[in-house]
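User: Here's a chain of 402 residues. Predict its fold as tokens.
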Amino acid sequence: MSLSSLTPRETARRRLLDALRREGPMARVEIGHQLSMSPASVSELTANLMEEGVLLADDAGDASPGLFRGRPKVRLFFSETLGSVIGVWMGFNRIELRLVDSAGRNRASRHVERPLRNLGAEEVMDMLAEVITAFARETGAPDVKAIGLACQGYVDTKDGVVAWSPVLGIRDVPLAAGLGTRLGLPVLMENDASAMAFAIAQRDPSLRAGRTACLMIGDGVGLGFLIQGELYRGARFGGSEFGHVRLRRSGPQCRCGGRGCIEAFLADYALHRDAQLIDHRPAPSILLPGEAAMSAIVDQARAGDPALLNLFREAGEVLGDAVGILIQTLEPDHVVICGPGTRAMDLLRPSFEAALETQTIPELRAMSTIHVVESSMDLLTEGVVMQALRELDLELARLKAA
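Assistant: Prediction complete.
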């Protein structure tokens, strides 16, 4: 998303649209406060955007005594008729899709099972294009403007390349270009943990202040890091592969090929693998266990199974070590623990808190607030949908030729 080609006036329009996208419907005076713009500038910009059909007004807001003398605020919001975007999450042999209109309203969603691991690069792109096209056709998606794609692993967001992913058997896949050519649409790519972090921060304004580290646990372990609400990018414009930081050289096998990674202790597949060894439960039909299989392990541990309680105790210690590393290397204002793995947070919490207190410098620990956000995989498609909507807003910010 490049702002360098915008004129000063287009940049002001872009900032205004971004504020509405981030905060939701706002009155003109609230927009002015958010952006430090004069009332005259806000009025002129919003009047033009309303004339173009980009923004609509609703006077059903709360009355505001004093400044508005009891009259309801007139709140501005996006029109829903400016096109739509599709968010896609690509996991192990499964794809999640979400259709959202230009006002940000969810219109449809789908879960699709598809084999991915043994496909070549062209086959992966053909299959994704087929699934997205079918979804758009079945849902009657109006005027799709962009695709947002979230994927596990190391994603180069600048060039749109999946450098490595545990869900694919191939490397350096130019997904954005290949999928964009097949669909005739811009494709924005994101690491799935970064996508979830972005979505969570959009829901909670307090997490958009300062530095926020979101540690996602579930199918794998990922990290999304935000500074003032914007995702931090590395040298290749990708996110962090924090889940593959090695804790113990002789630890359990990880999907990345190494041993002793944080993920190899905490991810769903790691917990299910160890539970299998404990009580000989049936192996999942695919590498990754489903929600039902993981819930069964959690329920059995809550019922008092000593071996499974010990499994979660050790996983909690690893989680404490991982969060301690985050605090002592990044000094975040907020640490968010999120993802489907939070289903077992009550079992992880005692050993997590004990490990965090003993392994972290107290002065640094006191600087970070720990949040646990119970979250599903829906946040992954929500995060990339929001990024795709911002791309749509960039085009809406451009002044139309006279």
